[in-house]
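Appendix B. One record, verbatim.
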Amino acid sequence: MIPYRKVEFHVSEKHSMIHYANGPSLEEINHTVTVPRDWGFWKTLFAYSGPGALVAVGYMDPGNWSTSITGGQDFGYLLMSIILISSLIAMLLQYMAAKLGIVTQMDLAQAIRARTSKGLGIVLWIMTEFAIMATDIAEVIGGAIALNLLFHIPLVISVFITVFDVLLLLLLTKIGFRKIEAIVVCLIIVILVVFAYQVALSNADWGGVFKGLIPTADTLSQTRKASDGLTPYAGALGIIGATVMPHNLYLHSAISQTRDYDPKDKKDVARAIKFTTWDSNIQLTFAFFVNALLLIMGVAVFKTGAVKDSSFFGLFDALNNTSTLSNPVLISVAKSGILSTLFAVALLASGQNSTITGTLTGQVIMEGFIHMKMPLWLRRLITRLISVIPVLICVSLTSGESELQEHTALNNLMENSQIFLALALPFSMLPLILMTDNKHQMGMEFKNTLWVKILGWVSVIGLIYLNLNGLPSAVSGFFSDNPTTAQTNLATTIAYILDILILGLLIWTLVEFHFGNKRIDAERRAQQNQQKGNA
């Protein structure tokens, strides 16, 4: 039953820097971390802890920051429920992704490619690459701004400096995967402590916080508008779009295989799934708290409506400006400059965390979809240089304008880049739920239970609908913050065309997926019959 892959893994000799590879997912670290078989719960959990942290980073990257803080500024604690629901959905999807990798010994990209044609595999690879580059743009912007704020390095130079984080990655590849996991956990703790400290100094209405965890009719209102024109529905879409991202599913399905369990032993597989799920849920709980603290900052740290510039520059300045802060304690601390400095440090930590996970994910999809392998540092260098281009263009186009316009343009670029995530999302979520619900390939012991299936389909359909429904506003954001009627109509037309293309490609994927599943089931039955005959 486990694994079900029929084709033997082949790894070619490495005669060149870029070469063919069809081996285990992230072969260099696959099954390299020793785990106990006879230890107690906590020691075993510690041995399995780590992959969840790398996944959780994607749920607290720079792309999440402005949406959560702006949501708090505009609507108080109303959108707390959206952060909670997004986090619970993330836990469910990451559980299925990890389970797929552990049971089948294939990551999500390999599993999809095994069921689709070469042509469709290339299309899906390109789409997923764009989604990863979209997240990389947020990392470039966040890292460059953090360097500018901390060390007063000109923004253009800061953008180029972010390219050299490839040197950090080179160093990390030499120290072992377990130590990389530890570094990521430490950076997450830095981010959590910074925001917890700032919120602790504020006078947060904790009754309002807990009340906001319960969704109401106003949570997705499209009629209620804040002073900046944002509706709760748009704010909720921003939070969801910045939270549930397809590349995390690919990453988790690969790094869940780093532990050295026996894939042919059902009890060992069940143990791996159990502790990997614990690890993932604990780390994603930390991510929930980070995002919740960001929203609370928008409400309690700043005066309502005081932050006019929601970019990272604007938030940094607001933490230095005593007139924007909500109480005397914060004002007293802000005078020392520590609030704004800690914010910039957390931003830099977030960007460096995403450097590691983004590169690993890129390698996963490249190997899985097109069987091409290259060194991690080269992969990082190429994607980072590509991601730097739109940021430099944005900076150059606004160089003659006011500082606020430059900041707003960078913030809009970061938010608008998330459109590719909405486009790529259905092509990872639907295959994931279909594969983990297949009893022939997962086995009756590991296929989705009824409640996981129901919650999975509700989550998948709901997220796809919200993302596609939010395309018109996302596309209009490319034109202007305040688009004209003609621009809005054009954006709506473009969004409908994109919806049709997505649905057409989705149908193509599902058709090939259906026949691919049948083929794999038939191959598996033939293998079983052959084994019985030999016995």
